[in-house]
Amino acid sequence: MSDQAPVSFARLHGRDAQDLGALHGVTLLVHAGVHAFVGAPADGTAALCELVSGRRKPRTGAVLVHGREPFRSPRTRARIGSLLARPELPDMPTVAHLLAMLARLKRIEGEPLHELGASTLVDRKLRSLATREARAVELCIALALVEPAALVIFEPFTECAPIDRAAVRERLVRRAASGAAVIIATSARSDAVELSGSIHVLEGGRLVSSGPCGWGGPDKRELCMWLEGSTAARRLAAALGERSELSAVRFQEQREGPALVAVQADDLEAAAVVVAEVVASQGVAVGALRTTLELR
Prior knowledge:
This protein has helices at 45-53, 74-77, 95-104, 112-115, 131-143, 165-177, 189-195, 230-241, 268-282, and strands at 7-15, 22-30, 33-38, 60-65, 80-83, 150-154, 181-186, 198-203, 206-211, 222-227, 248-252, 259-264, 288-291. The chain has 2 domains: 7-211, Rossmann fold (3-Layer(aba) Sandwich); 222-291, 2-Layer Sandwich (Alpha-Beta Plaits), CATH 3.30.70.920. Helix 8 (230-241) crosses helix 9. The protein is α/β, with parallel strands linked by helices.
């Protein structure tokens, strides 16, 4: 696998098609792996997805995928799997016809709808699909792309059903391991923690924080989470305490504001994976996450 970042942003400015939000001067190297960009469409998440997929042209600056601008290069766009805010399925009789065409063109592999929990949609007419169903079909197709350079997924678990969350997560990790830059734009911090290895925070169109599954540098050895409700926090801390990969787990109930759960480990990236698994299994919502040497 090459160390070169598959996707890069250079002073990127641009808006989404619905004019919900914009990016302002974002510069970032997006290496192979699963990256979550946390924010609302007004913060620029929808714009980010449209710009990386090549559906929109930047106002200024550039986004490059393997050194090429997607909006200029049809060949590059063909190697980017995408799920955007609005479904963009072609006008074909049924979902099965669409899948067969993409398979003949060697664009997708396997049986993605069956593998990702959306098999009930295979025989449906495309025009009969509700928005959430059309987005589920698009997500399955994006994750089945042959040798993708990048995947760009907008709100994978919002208005997107039926879908198997565990199967989606496994496929995202597999694509990242093969060298793709997987970009997930979400307003749900819990989804970001569950799905990604790196979290980047967008506020008002600007990149305000970026790091490996948290808000800190590589020398940090403590991962802190804030949860609304001490009951959920205690449950999470108890479940984390059973994991041998973590060297210490601390729970701290605040007089005001969310409760705090902190974990310590020598390998913080490995700890973040463990935390994501436990958060998902417990069904709790993590309101904020960062790495730090001290509880403040």
